[in-house]
Amino acid sequence: MNLSHYLDIKLLPDPEFSAILLLEALYAKFHRALVTQHSDQIGVSFPQYRLKPRTLGNTVRLHGSEQDLLALDATNWLTGMRDHIHLSPISPVPESTKFQVFKRRQFKTNADRLRRRRMARKGETYEQAVSAIPSSVEREPDLPYLNLRSHSTGQRFCLFVELGNRTDRPTEGIFNCYGLSQNATVPWF
């Protein structure tokens, strides 16, 4: 894994579209590009990530080798977004940097949906499913998220992004089709 370079994509203010709507559109395009390229070598970070107030910010930073970032750019995945963003040049990562994990976090947020799924899978009655899955399993997530549509299933879902461990040394690994990883770090500066 070579995360020697990065590029920043900053959302520009737009009177017609909210920043979160633009961020979701940008991220959906990024996801489709990674799926199309079968890429697991490009990671993502959010330099303005905050829990209070809960936000991913208006900048997406892509990390990878110079070749991987150039190959991504060659796909023209930003078509339709160029009027809404400022794209930095691909640049080397600064020498002294920390490393951070950005990972996807999934929550059991809807007990009724979980019960319906259990009923279909196990052939249980509603009462049996309620007994197995109490309302207390629901959790109100407090992480920043994007509302996206899965490229593979077409289902809408919330992609919650959680910060993992910050370290002085990089941790090798692969990234999923959202540029996130459970253990691989990206440069954090």
UniProtKB/TrEMBL annotation:
Pfam families: Cas_Csy4
Gene3D superfamilies assigned to the protein according to its UniProt record, in alphabetical order: CRISPR-associated endoribonuclease Cas6/Csy4 (3.30.70.2540)
GO MF, any single term: endonuclease activity
Entries under InterPro entries matching the protein: CRISPR-assoc_prot_Csy4, CRISPR-Cas6/Csy4_sf
Biological process according to GO: maintenance of CRISPR repeat elements
Name of the protein in question: Type I-F CRISPR-associated endoribonuclease Cas6/Csy4
Upper classification of the organism: Bacteria, Pseudomonadati, Pseudomonadota, Gammaproteobacteria, Lysobacterales
